[in-house]
Every structure is written in C-alpha cells, then in structure tokens.
C-alpha cells in the first residue's frame, strides 16, 4: 500500500529539511508544497499579508491532484515489485483540519466528484500527517536566520493562531516534539511511526 506522509506545521518548523532527509531514507518521491503556491500567494506572503482560505484552496487542490497523479502512476507501474515506490513525502503547512481533508480528497472542495475521488484515494494510498512541533522562540530564531524563503516572519503569529493541533482522537496525525533534536533523531521517530 502506498503511504502519503505529510510533514506539517508552521513556517520554520523544519518541514523541508526533514522532508528531504526522510525522502532519502525511504527512497521515496518528494513534493515540496511551497513550490506549488501560485505567484499571487507568494507575493502576499512576501508582503506579510496572511493568506485566506480562498487563497489556499487552489494550492491545496493542486497538491491533492499531484498526490493522485503519483498514486495512479504507482498503481499502473509493475505490480508491487520490491523496488517499487512505497511512500510519497509531502511538505505542507496543513494548519487546519479542512486543509488536511482537501489534500487527501475528503472534502467537497477538492473534487467535483467526491464519491469517485474518495474511492480512488481509498484504493490507492493511506495518509499519515506528521506535525513537527517547536516552541515559538525557536521558530522565531529560525525565521530570523532564514534569508532565501519568501515567507515573511511577521506571519508566524497568524499561522500559530490558525493551527488546529492534533488531538488524542487524531488517528492519522502524529506529533513530534522537534526541539533540541538532531534531524536524524526526528527522521528516526518518523520511521518508527510509519512502521506502526
């Protein structure tokens, strides 16, 4: 079974860095969510303007489409050979439950044909969301040190307010406390989660 691993959390939590390391460890496909933001979204974030749901929906729908494309490719390739792709690693803030639902196709916004899309998802991949948690002071430190990313650090408070944290009932959402840990330790924790 193909598994989609979504590394989620606010900007600066390490999604891209851990995502690349995890991709190497799993020999998997990698989708860098930030690469698929439309130019209008990037411009707003550069200017410190928070994105609205209307801004985010086309981006999330695009990510959902990419996952389906990769899942279809996986399904149509040689039947379950040992070398075959088993994981797709994706980075995406996925701050709200409804955003996570769009990514996996469990939301009316993500598709015009909800029933067939849900059937496709069920047959093609399972999903695990991995929330990378850091205290605010560490997030601020990382964002201040980062020079090449379009995200304006002034938006951090908005992201933290928007974030809907995983609960005890979240069966496909796992939280990792990343503070003070080396990247390899975090990757190892994720590997333990996906082996469950």
Describe the model:
- Keywords: ATP-binding, Kinase, Nucleotide-binding, Transferase.
- It catalyses: D-gluconate + ATP = 6-phospho-D-gluconate + ADP + H(+).
- Pathway: Carbohydrate acid metabolism; D-gluconate degradation.
- It comes from Smittium angustum.
- The structure is a single chain.
- The chain is of the alpha/beta class.
- The protein has one domain: P-loop containing nucleotide triphosphate hydrolases (Rossmann fold), CATH 3.40.50.
- The chain contains 8 helices and 5 strands.
- The chain has a 5-stranded parallel beta sheet with strand order 2-3-1-4-5, with helices on both faces.
- Helix 3 (53-76) runs parallel beside helix 4.
- The chain is globular.
- Mean pLDDT is 86; it is low at 112-116.
Question: Summarize this, please?
Answer:
The protein has 196 residues and is an alpha/beta fold. It has helices at 15-26, 39-46, 53-76, 97-104, 114-124, 136-145, 156-162, 183-194, and strands spanning 2-8, 29-32, 87-91, 125-133, 173-177.
N-to-C span: 14 Å
Q: What fold name stands as the CATH topology? A: Rossmann fold
What fraction of the residues are assigned to beta strands by DSSP?
15-25%
Strand order of the largest sheet: 2-3-1-4-5
- Number of DSSP strand runs: 5
How many separate helices? 8
Keywords: ATP-binding, Kinase, Nucleotide-binding, Transferase
GO molecular function, one term: gluconokinase activity
InterPro entries: P-loop_NTPase, Therm_gnt_kin
Pathway: Carbohydrate acid metabolism; D-gluconate degradation
């Amino acid at each position: 079974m193909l598994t989609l691993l979504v590394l989620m959390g606010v900007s600066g939590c390490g999604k891209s860095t851990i995502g690349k390391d995890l991709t190497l460890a799993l020999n998997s496909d990698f989708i860098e969510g930030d690469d698929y933001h439309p130019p209008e979204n990037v411009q707003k974030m550069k200017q410190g303007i928070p994105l609205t749901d209307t801004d985010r929906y086309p981006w999330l729908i695009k990510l959902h489409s990419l996952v389906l494309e990769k899942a279809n490719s996986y399904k149509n390739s040689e039947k379950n050979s040992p070398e075959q792709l088993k994981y797709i690693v994706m980075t995406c803030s996925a701050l709200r439950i409804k955003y996570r639902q769009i990514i996996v196709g469990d939301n009316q916004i993500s598709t015009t044909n909800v029933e067939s899309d849900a059937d496709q998802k069920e047959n093609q991949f399972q999903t695990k969301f991995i929330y990378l948690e850091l205290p605010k002071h560490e997030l601020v430190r990382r964002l201040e040190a980062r020079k090449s990313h379009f995200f304006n650090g002034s938006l951090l408070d908005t992201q933290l307010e928007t974030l809907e944290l995983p609960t005890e009932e979240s069966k496909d959402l796992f939280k990792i406390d990343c503070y003070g840990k080396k990247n390899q330790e975090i990757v190892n924790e994720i590997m333990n989660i996906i082996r469950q």
